[in-house]
Design brief:
Layout lengths: L4 E6 L3 H11 L15 E4 L4 E6 L4 H6 L5 E5 H7 L4 E5 L5 E8 H5 L8 E6 L2 H10 L3 E6 L6 H4 L5 E6 L3 H5 L2 E10 L1 E5 L1 H6 L1 H21 L2
Parallel strand pairs: 1-3, 1-4, 7-8, 7-9
Antiparallel strand pairs: 2-3, 4-11, 5-11, 6-9, 6-10
The protein binds adenosine-5'-triphosphate (ATP) and 1-O-pyrophosphono-5-O-phosphono-alpha-D-ribofuranose (PRP).
Length: about 220
């Protein structure tokens, strides 16, 4: 068993917030500062390893034990439903998972009367569950990005997607209809690592908890 603690971090927008937070509890990786295409970085002195992976792949690396700890959006966890220990809400990466549609369409219909709709989304599982609970039949079109394009070209009239500033919806003539979930980034931990590396991992969790608690108190 490696005596390193390995982190799987998403390459995209969450990476910087994650490293800033870890820095506050003394977990750093000077090797990551450079401009490099490397995917694995190490701090040999303090025995931490960092893997840069796609956001949607983080749970897989943690589930299979290639990483002990991961940082991932709650949206990805809800969609994938993997058996992972999720001890902490890291409070960054805030956005909302929304049902949205063109402004003109909302002006001429009442969403509470939907019985059969077509929806484009990166989140087919969440979308199916959400509408099943409401008794709405849904035809799902799975996309991998630029979801707001779908209604513009007639692929699907509605979408389920993340909204942060609302700029993407607005610039494409769409409006929010319903909120499915409020999203933040979460710390996830491999269940076996939690036992085999218990001391180091529980220390990381309690240290993070303190920092996050302090920040929440300070920011009100
Ligand atoms: N507009 C946004 N504002 C804030 N947080 C967001 C926004 N979009 C996504 N997120 C959060 O950041 C996470 C990672 O998003 P990012 O765009 O970096 O990767 P992705 O492109 O969705 O994933 P992949 O690379 O696997 O396709 C999302 O799962 C979500 O939790
Ligand atoms: O409300 P806003 O601040 O405009 O952010 C929302 C947009 O951000 C995300 O897309 P991303 O930038 O990840 O690109 P993608 O569409 O290729 O996934 C999301 O899927 C929305 O399209």
């Amino acid at each position: 068993m490696s005596d390193f603690i390995t982190f799987a971090l998403p390459k995209g927008r969450i990476m910087q917030d994650s490293m800033e937070l870890f820095g506050k509890i003394g977990i750093t990786c000077p090797e990551m500062a450079g401009d490099s295409r490397k995917l694995v970085f190490e701090n040999r002195e303090s025995k931490f390893r960092f893997m840069a992976v796609r956001a949607t792949d983080v749970p897989t690396y943690v589930e299979y034990g290639c990483a002990d700890i991961g940082v991932v959006g709650k949206d990805t966890l809800l969609e994938q439903g993997k058996d992972l220990y999720e001890p902490l809400d890291l409070k960054f990466g805030y956005c909302r998972l929304m049902v949205a549609e063109p402004k003109a369409l909302l002006e001429e219909e009442d969403p509470s009367s939907w019985s059969n709709i077509r929806v484009a989304t990166k989140y087919p599982n969440i979308t199916e569950r959400y509408f099943a609970e409401r008794g709405v039949q849904v035809e799902l079109i799975k996309l991998y990005g630029s979801i707001e394009l779908a209604p513009l070209v007639g692929l699907a009239e509605r979408i389920v997607d993340l909204v942060s500033t609302g700029a993407t919806l607005r610039d494409n003539g769409m409006v929010e209809v319903e909120t499915i979930a409020e999203i933040t980034s979460r710390l996830i931990v491999n269940r076996a690592s939690l036992k085999t590396k218990h001391q180091r991992i529980s220390r990381i969790i309690t240290d993070l908890e303190k920092v996050i608690g302090d920040e929440v108190t300070i920011s009100g």
